[in-house]
Each structure stands twice: as C-alpha cells, then as structure tokens.
Design a protein that fits this description.
It is built from 9 helices and 14 strands. The chain is an alpha+beta fold and 268 residues long. Helix 6 packs parallel to helix 8.
C-alpha cells in the first residue's frame, strides 16, 4: 500500500497551524454576532445547522483550495469535492453546533488531512477558548494557548480502577440497550463536551472517552491528535474508527480492553 511520506508532515502542519489562527480571527471579525439556525431533520428530531457552520466551511474550503487546488475536500455542509488526488481534507466547520447555539465555548473547527483515506494530521481549533490542538508528526501533538505550546501526553500509568471516564450516547442507545451495560454506566463520571473531551484525554486530564454516532468529520481530525499523544482509539467492536460510529479512546491498552469488554453487549 502506498504510504504517507513523513516529509509531508511539516508542510501541512505549518498550513494547519496558520489556519487555526486565521479561523479564530475570522470568527471574531465576521461571525461573533447573531446568526440564523435551521434544523436539518425538519421535525423528525433535532440536528441544528447555523449560518456560521456554512460560513466557516466556505472559509476553510477556500483556504485549502487556494493552497492545494488538486486535493479532495469532504465537508459536513458542502459535500465532496472529488479529484484523483490521494490527499483529502475532512472538515467539520463547527463540531458541537448545539454548544454554539446556546453559547457554550466548547465548540470547535475540526479539520483532518487524509492520505489514501487514513487521517494523518488533525486540527481541533477552539476560537472561544482561544486555543487549538494539532499533531505535527505521528508521535508529536501539542496544545497551543497564550502564545505557548505544550506537548500532549496521555497519562498511561492510571489503571482502570482510578481512570476518569467520560461518555455520551447522543440518543442512539435505547434504555433496553443501556440496561445491558449497567457496569459501564456506573463508571460514567464526566459528561462529554464534543471534541474537547477527546482533546482533554490527550492532555492527560482523563483516561477514557466513549461516544456514540461519530461521523467521519467528528473523529478523523481527532484520531491523529490522540494517537500522537499515546492514546488508543477504536470503535466499540475494536475496529479501525476511520468509518466513524461508536468510538472509544483510552490511555492504555489494558484499560481499552476492559472498556471493550464492558461495552460488548451493545457493540455489534
């Protein structure tokens, strides 16, 4: 299989590093004002999209297209720009639109660079929190805040008994299904704040995160960041999370296996 050449990391990491700063400036200059909300599900549920989601995605697409015109782009709001390139960018213009709507600061801009469909670089930018998370290689990821950067590293030493677990089902597990994983539910100590919770695990602030119903643009930008920090990320049935779905991220393999076992009754 054709492999991603490590020499590309610096080129694209530099691009994403600048893009993070540009996105925050764009938000405060153009979008920090009242916005319109519509519901994608139109009475069959609630999946909000705002005029800001669309503006962010247009901005991101324009930056990518200008710098890398031959690359593919896959965005939540404007679909797939299909080319013959092995490089593709996956965009969630606002991860956590519900948070954005009610004024919580935990929403973010998520972008990944994929090669042959696999994410190699990820950016999670939090304009309201004025910080962003970015991996610069396979084994190095950082949080950038207050003009400083701090290397991300999970706390691998914390065992399962002491591990802090955050989880969210996003209305996809029925009460009957939840009754089958009561031991797991008893361990749910913290709520999930969209992509921020995955990033907090990469910082070593908690050890286990489990979420349901991740789309590719929710998880692709996160995968390279948490892996570079030393974390393990799979689906609930222990498969490659590249197609999205129900996701587990853990601080070490022992804890990962224990969570997989607890979730096994609902993992198929």
């Amino acid at each position: 299989m054709d492999q991603f050449n490590s020499k590309y990391y610096q080129i694209y990491a530099n691009f994403l590093n600048k893009l993070a700063k540009d996105l925050t400036k764009f938000y405060y200059k153009k979008l920090d004002k009242p916005f319109k909300i519509s519901n994608k599900l139109k009475g069959k549920g609630y999946d909000p999209v705002t005029t800001s989601d669309k503006a962010f995605e247009k901005f991101i697409r324009s930056k990518i297209s200008k710098k890398f015109p031959t690359h593919q782009i896959i965005g939540e709001e404007y679909g797939h720009k299909n080319t013959k390139s092995k490089f593709s960018w996956v965009i969630d213009p606002i991860d956590g639109t519900r948070s954005y709507v009610v004024g919580n600061p935990s929403w973010s801009n998520l972008i990944s660079l994929n090669y042959n469909g696999e994410p190699f670089l990820g950016l999670a930018n939090f304009p309201k929190m004025k910080k962003y998370y970015l991996n610069t290689s396979k084994n190095s990821a950082y949080v950038f805040e207050n003009n400083k950067k701090r290397k991300l590293k999970v706390n691998t030493r914390v065992n399962f008994a002491n591990a802090k677990l955050a989880a969210a089902f996003h209305n996809t597990l029925s009460l009957k299904q939840q009754s089958k994983i009561s031991k797991f539910i008893k361990r749910m100590q913290f709520p999930c704040f969209d992509a921020l919770t995955y990033c907090q695990l990469a910082e070593g602030r908690l050890e286990l995160v489990a979420q349901c119903a991740n789309k590719i643009w929710d998880i692709h930008p996160i995968m390279p960041i948490v892996r570079a920090s030393g974390a393990i990320v799979t689906t609930w049935d222990n498969k490659n999370p590249v197609l999205g779905g129900n996701i587990i991220v853990s601080n070490n393999i022992t804890n990962h296996k224990k969570v997989l076992k607890l979730l096994k009754p609902v993992s198929k």
